[in-house]
Amino acid sequence: MAENKSDKKQHYISHKESRQIAKENSKAIRRFERAKKRKARPEEYLTEMKDENNIVEFDDLHTYFFSDAGTVKAVNGVTFSVPAGSTVGVVGESGCGKSVTSLSLMRLVQAPSGQIVSGSIRFRADMFKRDSRGRKIPVYETEKDENGNDIPKLDEHGKKIVKKNELGGTMYEMERQVVDIAKMPTDAMRTIRGREISMIFQEPMTSLNPVFTIGNQLDEVGRLHIQGISKERVKARSIEMLKLVGIADPEGVYKKYPHELSGGMRQRVMIAIALLCNPKLIVADEPTTALDVTIQAQILDLLREIKGKINGSIMLITHDLGVVAEMADYVVVMYAGKVIEMGTAEDIFDRPLHPYTIGLQKSKPTVDQVTDELYCIPGFVPNPINMPDYCYFRDRCDRCMQKCSGEYPGYVQVTPTHKVACYLYGNGDDREAEGKEEANG
Q: Which of 374, 379, 324 is nearest to 352 (CA)?
């Protein structure tokens, strides 16, 4: 009987405790919301990259959800980077923090309960240059005068003619800057989201608005992010993007509603929306969920082809190791809100080190092995509200030792490209052979 009472104390909170939690949550949420709505000077969120070859760097990112039962640490100290021109796959089981990490990058975490609490997200962006009054500076067409000097070209009314960019909008003077997205106010973030970074969401049927046509939803993106563009040019750009993603009848699909399209077609529309402004970074959150194998292969081929055309980077969020093996240059393995291993695709698939990574690979069926039962990692993920101080995977690990009950393990640099957070490799012994043996079973 005493054991039952003890269990209840562990899993239930009193009304008084719940009120105290709600009071503290409300105070914290107000502070974060004020910070997002503030009018900030660019100097407050400008920063520098640690490595100039990266397009984005996550540095000790913490994103929490404040609930009446306590604080859910969905992302709890994530650090990794996305090199320019590469594809980085973020893998892990459901609930490990993959999607929340990507939503933090886009500043689309469900507020007010979800907030970026601390850490940095450094992004190399092309920002608009501003004059002394804070206005964007347009670029004007020029012509040569009789002395061979460049002078502004004038229209029939004597006004300077503004140049058009490659998308058909007004061209402005730009400058390369590194911004800390975690510190940016909401208004400043709108100048980056959709134009510099775009996202392919997990489920197209819920992401597309059922009461607007496909054309309406594509055109809206163009009007929001390509300033000075005409209605005719917006429509032409939308149809051009539908063609790019392999839709056979782009003019017909432009007029249709989401429910009139198949799952694969809707997913292609989502990709077209994400690519409309030629972003530098595409965040693909489970882009092949609920699609059959043939359509999945087409979507992956399409993403690979488009990445080459726009010379951009892809952050691929998925739990499918097969997709990651086919697409990714680098792999980040997450567990319970933390990165537990990262490296090149070859490092992770040929030389897995962390017991969790090895377990993930063993749980994937292969054609060259005959088994009666698929492998399953035993145990459960710890409660995200009351995370332990020791390694989060300890209670599920078949190789844990006494040291695993101490502090959470730090990262061990096994090779220049391969890093793991595990005490098995803490003494300079990379144990690669042993890890490979475990992976092969």
A: 324
Distances in whole angstroms, Cα of residue 354 to Cα of each of 23, 83, 323, 333, 346:
40, 23, 20, 9, 15
Burial bucket for residue 314 (CB in 10 Å: 0-12, 13-18, 19+): buried
- What's the full length of the chain, in residues? 441
How far is Cα 46 from Cα 180, in angstroms, rounded to an integer? 6
| Angle, alpha carbons 247-249-252 (nearest 5°) | 120
User: Looking at the DSSP assignment, which residues form a beta bridge with residue 121?
Assistant: 58
Burial of 337 (0-12, 13-18, 19+ CB in 10 A): buried
Cα separation, 24 vs 295, in Å, equals 48
The pTM is what? Answer: 0.88
Place of tokens 């020029």: 142
Give the Cα separation of 245 and 230 in Å (integer). Answer: 23
Question: What's the angle, vertex CA 198, arms to CA 197 and CA 203, rounded to 5?
Answer: 150
The helix (H) or strand (E) run that includes residue 322 is: helix 321-327
Question: pLDDT tens digits, residue range 405-431?
Answer: 899 999 999 999 999 999 998 754 444
Confidence of residue 4 (pLDDT cuts 50, 70, 90): low
Tell me the one-letter amino acid at 340.
Answer: I
Pairwise CA distance, residues 412 & 422, whole Å: 7
Q: Map out the domains of the chain with their CATH numbers.
A: 24-135+172-196+279-440 (3.40.50.300), 208-278 (no CATH)
What are the tens digits of pLDDT across the range 238-278? Answer: 999 999 888 989 999 999 999 999 888 998 899 899 989 98
